[in-house]
Design a protein that fits this description.
about 90 residues, alpha+beta, two-stranded antiparallel sheet, about 10% strand, extended
């Protein structure tokens, strides 16, 4: 049996944090300095209770809208790659 990637989709969190907003929290940095150091002008931030799995589900739903020839019944498996925990680990009490 062969496996194929027939389509890829993605989703970004709706909340956007710009370098302008970041400078308000860290006034010792400038917008240009942040952009030069990390090469990013804005970043997408998850909502308070939004997890990597929530985003994966939204990306899957978007995929089926973008590729109407692909049907849920035809999917054998989904690959999710993330460095984000789906929930916070409890803190160890001392």
């Amino acid at each position: 049996m062969k496996a194929y990637i027939k389509a890829i989709s993605y989703i970004l969190p709706e909340n956007i944090l710009t370098n302008d907003e970041l400078v308000k929290e860290f006034p010792e940095w400038s917008v240009n300095k942040i952009a030069d150091k990390i090469g990013v002008n804005q970043r997408h931030i998850c909502a308070e209770n939004e997890t990597a799995v929530d985003l994966a589900i939204k990306a899957g739903e978007k995929l089926f809208l973008e590729y109407p020839d692909i049907h849920k019944e035809e999917i054998d498996f989904v690959i999710l790659c993330t460095q984000s925990l789906d929930c916070r680990l409890p803190k160890e009490e001392k």
